[in-house]
Amino acid sequence: MTGGGTTGRAQSRADAGTDPLGDPYLRTRFAPPSRPPTFLRRQRLLAHLDQALRTPLTLVNGSAGAGKTLLTADWAAGLRPPVAWLTVEAGDHRSGLFWAYVIESLRGCGARAPGAAGVPAGSRGVGRGLLASLAAELNTRDRPVVLVLDEYDRMASAEIAEQLEFVLHHSGHGLRLVLVTRTEPLLPLHRYRAADELTEIRGAELSFTLEEADALLRLHGLRLTPHAASALVDRTRGWAAGLRLSALAARGSTDPEQYLKEFEADRSTVADFLLAEVLKGRAQETQDLLLRVSVLDRFCPDLADALTLRTDAEILLAELHGENAFIERLGHSWYRLHPLFRDILRAHLRERMPGAEAGLHLRAARWLRRSGLLPETLAHGVAGGDFDLAAGALVDGLAIGQFFTGLRSEALAQLFAGMGPEAKSPASDLVRAAGALARRDVDHALHWLRRAQDQLSDAEDSPSLVAARLSCTLLEALVARLTGSPPRAEQAAAAAQELRQDLPDHLLDKHPELTNLLMTQVGSARLWAGRFDDARAVLTRVAGVRGGPPATVLPQVDSMGHLALIDYLNGWLGRAERRAQTAVCEAERAGLPLPTGAVLGRLVLAAVAVDRQELDQAPVLLDEAAPRSARENDPVPTAARALAASRLLLDAGDTHAATEAVEPAVSAAVASPWAESHAAVVRSAACIADGRPDEAVRLLHGVSGDQPVCAVEAAGIQVSAGHPRAAVELLGTVRAEGHAGPSVSVGAALVRARVAQESGDTATARRLVARALLDARRERLRRPFLKAGDWIKPLLATASLHELAEGWLLPGRPRAHGEPVQPPPGPVPLVPVELSGRERDVLRGLARLMSTEEIAADLYVSVNTVKTHLKGAYRKLAVNRRGDAVRRARDLDLL
Question: What is the pTM of this model?
Fold first, then answer.
């Protein structure tokens, strides 16, 4: 949970009746809707809802117009206080604002004392201490408070869902939470069901029965025969809004049953009748307003005025809403039409005003663009056929990076899929280039990018020109990444830094993903060029950004994946594994569809698994990364996959397939020193395995000490080929400079040990192997030992070295000198390992890549308790890392 505790200023603000944004609380959000005269009380549902007083959580879940809110309001009105009501709004995804409204609703119904301390200090975050205090306060109540959150489907924040569950759990019997929603909330409903602590009313139960429908029709003045009523229920499937619409339309007919027969027989004709009856008696201005706003999903009076070219929308909308004429108030003066009513109005608009729909969309798009509502601007611009307008809004708003954030990428691609040659603005060409780059089509992207840049070169200076040129820098940087060209990426970054000076801070702050994406492309290009330290510097800045908007998650994950690969290429398996797991976990948590960072994360985990000889896991990880990487025209993940797959095939003895698998690593237009070196080592190792030592040595010609991991593997091949002196000389060129990890030190020690052993210096060889074992044990680095050859077996059979290898590399007790040692499929415990039930639960959480805080919330224990269980599991399993604990437990069949 993010910060934002309570302060004196925050409390004073709350006492003054203002929210964390400084705005007055919207009191309408705390008031249940009034029940119209035609409302039907349904006792069967009220009786079911009474169970909510005995369960912590209640879910009223149904489609729009199913009668959820009015049902819950009717039930709440019959309860003894305190009952708190809050209508959720889209802006409540900011946790501080959401909890400020929750606390105010509790205070307003008398559930909190007037002087109770604790309000969020800001709109964006809320401290865990405040939530704990609120839960503790509620837990002391003699009688529970019922908190109803209406329209909870607007809440898409996983953070707030987690906070809500925390408060609900720790409030004990002092809180009964009722969620009225169209969608499944982000709460662990399965746990509440299993504990019989959930009351649920869903769509099927909300549907009107025949008896209820007949009673509802009677309230509208309609008396139908049982057959006609049954036909209507069948047609509407008991949907409350459908019944109400039908009743309103039919009650003015001289023959309601005949009308409803037509409704059943001809839906399109019925729609015309229904629309005419609903609008009957309305002033022409009102009908015109309704027809025009039907092109909108939501609207406010000013936007409605822009479509009608009048100034009476505010009065008319208030009247329509007051009469319950199928207009819903969303808050802050925004409205929406009932979906069925809206669809019928749209159909009628096309008949009454042919050709007007596109113009209305464009008027809406221009108003929305001026108001800064970008997603709706794009939708209406495209619906109106003006792709230049939509593209201009996207580029001017610095939002072209959304093509690459994974959140709206597919939606944008589909939105602009119909853009034809008539769209000729620079912004349209930039959108075409972005779409091509999102598909990894560099050639077409460059064509459109160059065309846009040519047009921009002759344009007059303006904020739109600066925004377009800044968008160009992002696309140039991505081209540089995909073509492996660091100079090009650096030029784009420098140009972007200069252009940023000419744009307002509020616009840059609104789209931080633009800068983060640009930095990630630069870091990737530097990595490809082998400039690991320079790449790490820029990637760390992006990966370290926490708590940013959702659009920044993908560049953050992307940077983590690249950093994991850098760690692996430097020989740090443990670091690489932890970063890779974080990248994969963050991508899954954000719901991203396997972005490059997560692909890289899985590929790094596969490479680590190969080095640890966990050969059952490596293929699975490679397969998980395959669907995206097969389409990925990105040299870094392409090379990472080629290297991991080729080494796995090499270890399986399929040298021909290994040689073929490594080829993609060197197929990029611009060569990478580390990819070339790793590929040369794989080819050379394949030649050694095939009995071609001379060819193996020739292939190592370009491998140098600049790539330490490759150099030590190449030195091992040199020894196998009969060139020990060349091997030692190559090791002497290794420039570790404090950055190389255990993979380098272990490999180098084993090469020197083999040279010493073959020269008769067994004591030196034993000492070097002991050093290698000590370094490798921490990382569970098995591959260098298991692939070293027969020379090492007598050494490992000695008591002192066998003791160092036992339990993670070798099984059993020390063997006699010269007795063959067969590597086990997995580590064997020295003593039986028994984990407690809680220790197993914690390890299962680790296996699902959950954080310590998530495990604590899942098990309803404190973080410190989880850490205590972790320490116990680590001690029993003889490990000190999360990943090692999970693997060790699986090896011992404890998970």
Answer: 0.64
